[in-house]
Design goal:
2 helices; single chain; alpha+beta; 38% helix
Length: 65
């Protein structure tokens, strides 16, 4: 959220979420992004998280970047 409207790098997200502690499965971030998308949807929040290939993720609010 702090990176909005810029793209958040995968490495930055790993460090923010898991504080660089130990080994985290590479798919863990993908699973958590999926869960966040589902929560947005179920709460009626008009936000999307989209993948920016080889970089990370970008948040779009109300259909706008």
């Amino acid at each position: 959220m702090r990176a909005y409207p810029k793209t958040a790098a995968r490495g930055d997200l790993y460090m923010a979420a898991w504080d660089g502690e130990g080994f985290v499965e590479p798919n863990t971030l993908n699973v958590n992004i999926r869960r966040l998308r589902d929560r947005f949807s179920s709460a009626g929040i008009l936000a999307q998280i989209k993948v920016v290939r080889t970089v990370g993720y970008r948040l779009y609010m109300d259909g706008r970047p």
